[in-house]
Records
---
Amino acid sequence: MVPIIAWRNIWRSRTRSLVVIGSIVIGIWALIFLLGFMQGQVDNYVSGIIESETSHLQMHNAQFEDDFDVKLTIDNASKIVEDLESDPGVHAVTSRILLNGMISSSAAANGIMVKGIDLEREDSVTHILAKIMEGAAPDTSKRNQILVSERIAEKLKVKLRSKVVLTFQNTDADITTAAFRVSGIYKTHSKLHDELYVFANKKDLVRLAGVPPGSAHEIAILLREIDHSDAFAENLNETYPWKAETYKQISPDLELFSSQIKLNLIIMTTIFMLALIFGIINTMLMAVLERVRELGMLMAVGMNRVRVFFMIVLETLYIALVGAPIGIILGYFTTKYLNRVGINLSAWSSALEEFGMKDIVRPSLESGTILTVAIAVLITAVLASIYPAIKAIRLRPVQALRKL
Amino acid sequence: MTEEIVIKVSDVHKTYDETKVPVKALRGVTLDIKKGEFTAIVGPSGSGKTTLLNIIGGLDRPTTGSVVVNGMDISTLSDNQLIDFRKTNIGFVFQSYNLIPVLTARENVEFVMLLQKVDKAKRDARTKEMLQAVGLGDRMHNKPTELSGGQQQRVAVARALAPKPSFILADEPTANLDSSSTANLLDIMAQLNQEEGMTFVFSTHDQRVIDRARRVVTIEDGKVLKDEWR
């Protein structure tokens, strides 16, 4: 009977209950959307870094990352690439020559990293061809062609087919200088990336730097499932004498960004739950104070305090149980829809480029988010009901019955 | 009428000091109420009759003195024990009906039996019987707002009687009723008093109730002034 009374009680003041339920619905909907949006930003950031820089995994000579010494290569890189290509877990793999150096034109000079790439394989890992705005990728049939970013082209004041000079150290520790012709100009979503990297044919750099044929400084691997990264890296480290690292190890800022976003989510969720608590307390307190005489009568005829307490808690829970699923369903489908169509943030694209983020954010929900929100709302409802319930059980029937 | 004493009130004093000026509501009331009585406690406003009823009903505690119901001194019980005591021993009829507005007449009558964990078959049968006894067999599924004042008070009487308590305490039960509803309610209560042997104690200053009572206890200034049997 107590659950029935509690359920009917919440509909006694229909408008008031609907206002509270409505605020729960809107609050949860907004919270889930925000959670999805922020997770979408994390995904955006992570996928941007993976796509343009780290891939899912990279292999290097273990000492290479310390000082980028051109001699510290993976000797059998071509063989490893071929082996990995036949692995069903691997989506794409490529090897690269990496040279720290300087690019200069008649107008200016800039410190850069030259990536010597295997063009076909590189494109399947980083989709670099799709980012070419003008011209084309270095022609494999011609020597010394280079792909520069729009930013570097602007700095050096060069255009397509302009000549630039690359200066770097070869394996004999001699400074090598070579003239390259700009075959294409690219632009990615990341300002940092575009200011740092230029792309040339791997075989040109092998020749100019004196790196042994078949070797490389870096092998970049894109897996079919990002979640397999850790296990795959472990496997590579057991199989080869080279150092394999996941994107999280290569770019620790990803973890920092994710954890900061998660902290933001916790703060937002807490603020929302606090607002919800006070909203519910206000409503339930009104409900209790309006029914002082009735509560006095219930206790007079023998309803014990535990039951009265339970009844008030149940009323609060019912309000939450009506509002929460509607809010969750709305939030879920809104997020799902926006994940499909994406949210266009191109108005802020220059700011997003600073962080290496794309201007389309696709909100997404991590597994467990919905359950976490549902549990948080229920806990909030129970907490919010405690004060009004205590207020109810503290009533003395003899005094409560006198209330008009 | 048997001589079994249901309620024994011995030298009960009650002093309220809520307003910091002590108010002596009862000044040594002694009273025995036997099984099957149909007793009215009468007196002017402020005489202490409602206080006496509250103390007998375990809703309030005496400052001094004792109230023994069915051999149990209820002035020594804790608040939780008093709730249990009221649930099993007393049927209340309040001046303003005090039905649960979200429940139907049937559910209201059933309510205390549910708290007592009476099984469903017995509960249903007793609920039906009581609602028919108060002439509301056809209004079982109506909520209080769909009933007149007189009908609501009859539901309240059915609710008080349904769990077969030791006695019924009715605080000004006719105060909000018109003449015909009052007469009808008194008929029903008198009939149930006869048929079920139920003890009724009223506080009232309604002459129509006083006229029907078989014992009238007059209280004034917190003391029993007269105790008349008819």
---
Amino acid sequence: MDNLLQLLEGDCTLSKKQLAAMVGTSVERVEEAIRDYEKKGVIQGYKAVIDWDATDREAVTALIEVKVEPQRDNGFDRVAERIYQYEEVESCYLMSGDFDMTVIISGRTLQEVARFVSQKLSTIDAVKSTATHFILKKYKESHLIFKKREKQEEGFVFV
Amino acid sequence: MIDYSKVLNSRISAVPPSGIRKFFDLLEDMPDAISLGIGEPDFPTPWHIRDAGIYSLEKGFTKYSPNAGFSELRRQIARYLQRRFDLRYDPRNEILVTVGGSEGLDLALRCILEPGDEVIIPTPSFVCYGPLVSMSMGVPVYVETKAEDAFRLTAEQLKNAITPRTKALVLPYPCNPTGGIMEKADLEAIAQVLEGTEIMVISDEIYAELTYGGLHHVSIANIPGMRERTFVVNGFSKAFSMTGWRMGYLCAPKELIGSMIKLHQYGIMSAPTTSQYAAIEAMKNGDEDIEDMKKEYDGRRQFLLQGFRDIGLECFEPKGAFYMFPCIKSSGLDSDNFCEKFLLAEQVAVIPGSAFGPGGEGFVRCCYAASMQELATALERMEHFIKHR
């Protein structure tokens, strides 16, 4: 059962039956474990990884470095909360190093992202400064390479 | 006009063409078919290994290697074999780098066989042994292993197959296509039969890294008294997902290696240089890749085994390699017919057991080195085929 989470992280579309066979237990035990993980918040959700560049939909993603004034009692958590509540924020991390937080946001257009930074993010009191980096091309995300693997010629070989 | 039938070597002409080619021809016109036919890992070679090959090209390492292979590679192979299987071979004169495990098998047979020498081959097993023996003027003697013996070769069977002309025994374990393995006690029983004879053992250990359920591969070369008569054939294809690099090796006492090097140096010269540099990296830093891939195969193995049993197919639990060998006798079809009908009706390619020699009829080989999605779909289609045929 110990690799159930790794299996789900790799591919959450695996059926309960597949998972059960792979970890060597019953379907019921797998269902129970997953319910438990969901309840405890170990499993936060299930999502598809999408390469929007391969579709007609316009999409822009930016990585924003944010410098923050930590607050008495709450440290960074209170500011983080004010940032991550915005729907546009895809991910939000507290960082070590030259800046304090990384905020990843996605929008339809460059303007939309710029508007978010200037009107929403920068206006939060504790935010001292921001540096916005637009992502030009996604090569790989969540271990998935965004490129169709070219196939080698296949012919008759018997092994 | 040249009469080619008179020109061509009769022993080679006598080897029948592969009976399963037709499945591959059919497959070509089925772009959506799922193939569980080819016994090949579905992972690309781990990047750090590919990178080592690329780096060697960048540095301009494009010359011949020594006939026996780069000394660094042979040293690394020796260390790897000791680390993983407790086998001890001297990299200076007991290891030869070959073009895949297949060349190793061919060299071993050719360096010992005289016309009429018999070679005992447990079946069902990989298709190459018999033809290689015949082409070296030997005589293949097939011994049928049974599902009820877990497809192991028993000491009794071996004893019954030995004649004064017996020159060698091929030990194809872990076994393609059955997934059977030989444990230490099984090998000890075989060793008892061989002791005191001059029968050589060609141990094809290409699937040695792929054993499941906490079982570890044991080489017959490690059974007392067997090392002196054993050729250990192994390679990088299955363990490191390196089939196209054509990298294998052969380990044997130096007298035998000395003879095989002659064949190798005149026929092959040396194994490809780029592949050898990649192989050095695999030996030095590839243990984790092996474990990762094995874990993945094991999950698929358990899923497919459970799936076959759920749809009512009798199936031996394979303990090694990456094949499932379910019994399809309940379908009322022979294995060749089963595979053809299954492919045409459900677009899934599996290989008839009959292709793997005596004892294979009534079974089909399914390679589970395929994605979980493919396996799940193949299973659904198998169920549909069996229930609605």
---
Amino acid sequence: MSQSAIQSQSVGVKRIAAANARARYMKRAFPFYLMIFPGVLLFVIFRYLPMFGVFIAFKDYTPFRGVWKSEWIGFQNFVRLFSEQDFLLLLKNTLYLNLLDTFIGFPFPILLALLLNEVRIKYFKNTMQTILYAPHFLSWVVIVGITVLFMRSQDGGLNVLLDALGYARIDFMTNPDYFRPLWLFHNIWQGAGWGAIIYLAAIASIDPALYEAATVDGASRLRQIWHITLPSLKTIIVIMFILRLGSFIDVGFEHIFLLQNPLNLQVSDVFETYVYRIGLVQGDFSYSTAVGLFKSVVGLVMIVAANTIAKRLGEEGVY
Amino acid sequence: MKLLKVVTLLLLSLSLVVGCSAGNSGGNATTENTSTNTEAAPTEQAANNEKKIPITIAVKYWNGAKWAEDHPTIQYLNKKFNIDLKLQIINGGEYGEKFKVIAASGDLPDVYSIGGSDFLNWQSEGAFVDLMPLLPNYPNLNKAYPADHEAVKMLNPSDKIFGLTNISWIVRDTVQIRQDWLDNLGITLPTADEFTIDKFYEIAKAFATQDPDKNGVNGDTIGFTGSLPQIRNAFGIANEWMEKDGKLIPRQTQVEEYKAYLAFMKKAYDEGVLDRDFVLRKGNEVEDMMKGNKLGVFNYHNGYHLLQGDIKKNNPNLNPVVAPMAPPIGPKGDRGNNAYVNGLDKVVINAKADADKIDRILQIFDWWVTDEGTSVMKNGIEGIHYKKNAEGKYEVTDKWESGFPRFLNSSLFTRPGTDFIIFAWSTEEDIQRHNAYTELAKQYPWTNDAGGLEFYSNTYKDKWANLNTKFEEAVLQIIVGKQPIEYIEQASKDWMANGGEQIIKEINEAANK
Amino acid sequence: MVKLMSKGDRVFTVFVYAFLIAFTLLILFPLFYVISTSFAPERDYYTRGFFLIPSSWTLEAYQYLLYNPSFVGALKSSVIITFFGTIISMTLTSMMGYGLSERWLKGRTAINFMILFTMLFSGGLIPSYLVVSGLHLIDTYWALWLPGAVSAFSVIVMRGFFGSIPYELKESARIDGCGEWRLFGTIILPLAKPVIATFTLFGIVGNWNTYFSAVIYFNDASKWPLQVFLRQMLILEDEKIGQLAEPIFTYTPSARMAAILITAIPLLVIYPFLQKYFNKGMFIGSLKG
């Protein structure tokens, strides 16, 4: 009896303590929950509510019946995708382009930000930064248009030059070998200055005292980058890299589509262009949703894997 | 966290309701209304138009001035038919996507255009008003759209007409040559009978290697570029499908014809007669080349007199003359310009409309196909968009450009015929030129014998685009010399094996139905 | 830089400048073509191919655009969308990013993952439209402002930035009796200027470039922003003509290039103003001491 009384008493004390702790926690945490709340609400309404749309992938969707009343067809769309004659080709091309972009395109803005940070002449730095950022506002139609003007075989500037110098003309636009480098070059050309902004902001947040100390110690500029700047950028680089991996099976449609022609199709055909092509004939929402869902799942796997590794290595990660 | 879960669940279940009701309102209301529609109001009674009826019309918008809500033409229609007309202007590039979301939310307008497989699929959902029993009440419409016309029947079940359609050009484009270039090179313009594929080659080669534009440089002009289907047609290759021995066959199976065609094209590419960049040039780039005085043989429409003006503007010291030609004759006597399949795009009335509204809408269309109605919808309103000048001739006012009165006539509905580009102020010369061109072009139609049937084949829907891309890839690889001509046999076999055979079967089944 | 640089530093500096100048030239070259074409007569585009200096200079294209009523209307709409859209988005995103940067907060991981998830999975166009129309937001600017106000990317990256603010700094303010909201408004936000400037820039650019959602959510064509207008000029599809061959409106190449420049100019002008914040840096160090 007494034993149980003591027990219940101690449980009661614990409860009170726990309740106090909870009240204290809530008092402390409440303002933060309040800050988060509006954002969460918007996410729920505008991102999660529409999520029921993924069911379209498992249905034979017709607009008149809506998502729910359309006929249920199960995994038929996925079976069709995986048994597509060109599935492996599409996958290979997509992965190839993304590997290039992740390992060559991704570090480029970081490099640019590091170099810009080394420029000590203020006006030079500012002007250059503005110019580097400008291409972000040219759409792919314009960029590809200018490229074609410059690189086409018959009267493109570069080929006219090659011809005048006595070299053979090169079919830059139709030779499959040139497609991937050209695509990557475009990405860097258009995006590096824009991408550098976020790293510049991060560099700006580094404590200047660290550099002063290093300079006193006689560290060279290169060593300062290696020992101060890069370690300080680690968190943001890891975040950006993990997020980049999330879209590992995505490539921008418009850019590829404009660069694509029947002669470079074996290297330029990707899921986006493929879906567009068949969509023109049939306007099939269900199938394109299924392809999108497949890409999302791959992205999720990549992110979860990368995030787990990052956490093992002591980084914060993205969730 | 629990709270979050509850909220999420709540909102999700709310979404079910939203989703369902939205889906429903499309389906249910539709079936109810179609039954009432069959008893149409007689025209005499409706002519009174006592009640003011709101009508919404969706229109594709590409460019030009946007109509304001109080556009003079809208006011005119409102008054004439006692309606309250609202236009739902949809950006052309997103028309398809926007329409799918509007349909899903059940807010479809009263009148809209729709084509191809959507038109076919939505029929079974009861989306459109059947015009078959109604048309006889509207004499002008009934005359303009006879129930036995191929284009009217297209994609419709045999006993129903679900929409009005554009019946226009059968053949719009033909081969055209820069006559002043020929003159510069001392070549006489061939007559229709002399214009063989060899003669074509001779001319194109002269354009490519000599100096037709007299700028002192040989070879900076182009012989011919892609998008010239007349060459393929000259070798007897089908415009997608042709009837042979009572069976429909696709061009991908015409291996022998292709071999002759490819030999021709390959030679043209090797000798520099075919534009080295022909794979890259898109429609507007080809037009840029014409305007820039770089290209002398091309496939173009009846606006060639305007093209002459554009070339002149860019090269003020030239007097460009563009001559429309008959298409070239192939080795076996085949020749033709690609013919359109009329009737694939429909203007439909939403089945949710009640009998009064349907009547009012049909009254408008009935008036639209008359000379009076077409004049308003095309030229605009006299006194606002155009006027009579002192000599008693019509001329446009400054409102013509900024008011864009022909917007609906160009973008939604046109009465049958090709006179939509003839305006009140068009000169006699213009009209004659237009008529002569129409005569010439339609003399050599190269028809697609299965036009419209492809929408009935599921394999076609799933596989055709990709199969066709593969086949074109092979064709181009052969022309630029990456593959031998015999490779076309393999490409044709692959096409058949990967779904082509099934498509042929389904298309022929659809044809025999 | 009073001290003389070591040899290694000098080589490094030369490399830095050489690389940046080369890259900048590579970018300027095509940009120059766009600028030149906008000032060149139409003839140059059709007859000269790639060129850098117009045969004669003209402002025709710019006059044409600025006198075009659709263009002016679109400009107005773009300004409204961008101004309010950025304010709403920055307020909500910075609050959310800061709130989530507190590591001890319960449910944080779940919310983080929930945010990340939306980056990968989306319901697609149709259900999103149904939600927006269910809330009666169609044809209002809220249809653009609200769905785009918080994005996974900006919340995640901002959270990372806020997380790097030293903990002691916040604690000392709290001990001084500073409430969380005041702490956020008067200490954290000013400290985070580089980040705020960066994401304000992203917000402005993102809102300014809004295109597809405007076309989908605005039935009222007079609300379409500049990007819709720009695309109508740039995308020349054959479908436009369709079966009808009639004199359609065509924009001259000069007008197209001029439109690209005019739409980009506000974003280029705004850049230096924000740039000074993310170049200057924040002086956590000096505050700490």
